[in-house]
Amino acid sequence: MLSKEECFYLGKVVSKHSFRGEVLVKLDTDEPEIYEEMESVFISMGDSLVPFFIERSLLQKSSLLRIRFEEIDDEAGADAILGAELYLPLTMLPKLSGKKFYYHEVVGFKLIDEAMGPVGTIKGINDSAAQALFVAEFKGKELLIPVNDEIISRVDREKKEIHVRTPEGLIALYLD
User: Fold this and answer.
1) DSSP state of 165
2) Pairwise CA distance, residues 72 & 143, whole Å
3) According to the model, what pLDDT value does residue 175 have?
4) Diameter of the chain by CA atoms?
5) What is the pTM of this model?
6) Contact 2/89 with Cβ under 8 angstroms?
């Protein structure tokens, strides 16, 4: 059985679409079209992820996917999954290249600052604020560095490094 840690959040069942049990799923992605041909998804039910097979799906509006599940053929079945979250295994994420990355894939990467050299290891990414932040540990202190294109100069997946050009004084701020 897959755990949520091995999966990524794809979207949420937001409404019923027909009396035959079809539902509308709001996808949480910039590229909804790549999820139109899925054969199955995992639906979060209680503490477990349950696989559901897709009979057919159709992109409605930009991020709404109309899905007819093999297992659901009436309104009661659709009601049972209303509001449920959909997940897919991490292995199904499209590969990213260049300076684009998934937050989960850079945990453990080293941060290399242009001026200061290695400035710690990424422990996670805090995306609860308006600006996502790398959370790194450096010399026993926690460093918060904005995740944005101006600061990230390159991502080296082979060496597991993210090279950054931080604003002057930012790192010193944490070390005092």
Assistant:
1) -
2) 48
3) 81
4) 63
5) 0.66
6) yes
Judged against a pLDDT cut of 80, whether residue 78 lies above it is answered with yes
Q: Where are the alpha helices (DSSP H) in the chain?
A: 75-81, 170-175
Assess contact for 114 and 102: CB atoms under 8 A: no
Q: What is the pLDDT of residues 33-45, one digit of tens each?
A: 889 889 999 999 9
- Write down all domains in the chain, each with its CATH number in brackets: 4-92 (2.40.30.60), 103-174 (2.30.30.240)
CA dist 155 → 94, 99, 162 (Å): 17, 5, 5
Phi, psi of 19 (to 5 degrees): -70, -10
CA 145 – CA 88 distance, rounded (Å): 29
Sheet holding 110-113, edge to edge: 141-146, 133-138, 117-126, 110-113, 161-164, 152-156
Q: To the nearest 10°, report the CA torsion of 110, 114, 116, 120.
A: -10
Q: Tokens in use for 24?
A: 């509308």
- The C-alpha angle with vertex 73 and arms to 70 and 62, in degrees rounded to 5, equals 70
pLDDT of residue 47: 86
